Amino acid sequence: MVHLIGFDIPVVLDVEMIRPGEGEIVAARRLLERLLVRYARFFDAVQGDALYLEGPLFNLCLKHHKHILAVLKDNNPALLADAKGLMRGEPDLIHKEDKRIVYCWDQEGFTTDSIQTPFRVLRAEETETKQERIVGKWIEKEQISTWFWGTTIPQSLIPSRQLRYIGHDRWKIENRVFNALGEHWGLDHCFHHDPVAILNFILILFIAHTLVQCFHHLNMKQPLRRRFTFIAVARQILLGIAALGTHPAAWLHPRRALFPHNNPPPA
What we know:
By secondary structure, the chain is of the alpha+beta class. 39% of the residues lie in helices and 24% in strands. It has 9 helices and 8 strands. The strands form 2 sheets. Strands 3-4-8-7-6-5 form a 6-stranded mixed β-sheet, with helices on both faces. The chain starts with a strand and ends in a 9-residue tail after the last helix.
């Protein structure tokens, strides 16, 4: 799946099935080629996990004048070793966020055997103070995590701090799409085993999810949004469909709709 980041509403653009005998990255290239035709003006860069740091995908994006950002991990051992060796000493940037201190090293000019065009590598070391309850006492511990990203986005276009935020935004497809749709919208359930039916269900689910979120975030007033969460509104819509419109919508008359047959309880 592919979805837009940087927006309050997670918009899924398209999905591609992984065919028998092929890997994820092959399906991703096929999906990206379709996106570059249909939604070329929707985005300026493509972001993915460590699998996407590979030559054919980089070349495809550069051919269509799109940037790419991917996590750098052990599946590129030579490049990772070069980055670790060159990015030592004093960091290029230090900044603090709440209980987290971030050190960034940022360098351009990296190449690999499959990626001949020079690209940029960002290293971020994040030291976060967390509290753990041990033997009835709260104890503060430091947790250190290190991230590497490879990208064609130059330093002159996006600075280190902003690029790190974009790199972490990759997780939104897990939390706001896969987890949310799987837990509340039935994405992880197979309602029909025909491949065409499965694909159509997923696409219709994306449309419904996007429309309900647009209604909740853009149409409902702030006092009602505080009272009715996005999931609560989706459930009320489902109940309204099941009741064939016999009761008013909960977001129009909250107290009356929640208690249609009885007097509302005292405030």
